[in-house]
Amino acid sequence: MLAVDTNLIVRIVTNDDPDQVRRAVALFEHERIFIAKTVLLEVEWVLRFSYQLPRETIAATLRKVIGLGNVSLENPHEVSIALDWFEQGLDFADALHLASSSRAERFATFDRKLAKLAGQLQAKEILMA
């Protein structure tokens, strides 16, 4: 199994460097791929910040990549929950933090927007610190 970095996924999605796209696609076609949660977190940030892609496009793109038959994820259940919450309006990083904290009963934050949205999604009991 081959773990991949953010830039391989971004190259494939954006198709902005033909040589690197070709090489990244070849790896995805011939290897079993592992993607860490932190890589997905960075992919979302790069696509949103650097490429200014809308939330819907980013969510669909991440779902396509992680849905490939040869792709394995770190904590796939948590990633799936985080993507659901992201599609419902939660920031992807916040959604991943919440989904990854499933062993905790509550989640503390100073972020009022996060607390409000998480409460609406019934994601977890939020404690305003």
Explain what you see.
The structure is a single chain. The protein has 129 residues and is α/β, with parallel strands linked by helices. The chain folds into 2 domains: 1-74, Rossmann fold, CATH 3.40.50.1010; 88-129, no CATH class. It is built from 7 helices and 5 strands. The protein has helices at residues 6-14, 18-30, 37-49, 55-66, 76-87, 92-100, 112-120, and strands at residues 2-3, 33-35, 71-73, 106-109, 125-128. It is elongated, with a radius of gyration of 16 Å. The model has no long low-confidence stretch (mean pLDDT 93).
Number of helices: 7
Would you identify the CATH architecture of the largest domain?
A: 3-Layer(aba) Sandwich
The top-level CATH class of the largest domain is: Alpha Beta
| Oligomer kind | single chain
Largest sheet: 3 strands, parallel
Quickly give the structural class. alpha/beta
What's the overall average pLDDT, rounded? 93
Number of domains: 2
**How much is the radius of gyration in Å?**
16 Å
- As a percent range, the share of helical residues equals 55-70%
Give the neighbour order of strands across the main sheet.
1-2-3
Order of helices and strands: EHHEHHEHHEHE
Strand content: 5-15%
How many strands?
5
**Remind me, CATH topology of the largest domain?**
Rossmann fold
Low-confidence stretches: none
First-to-last CA distance: 41 Å
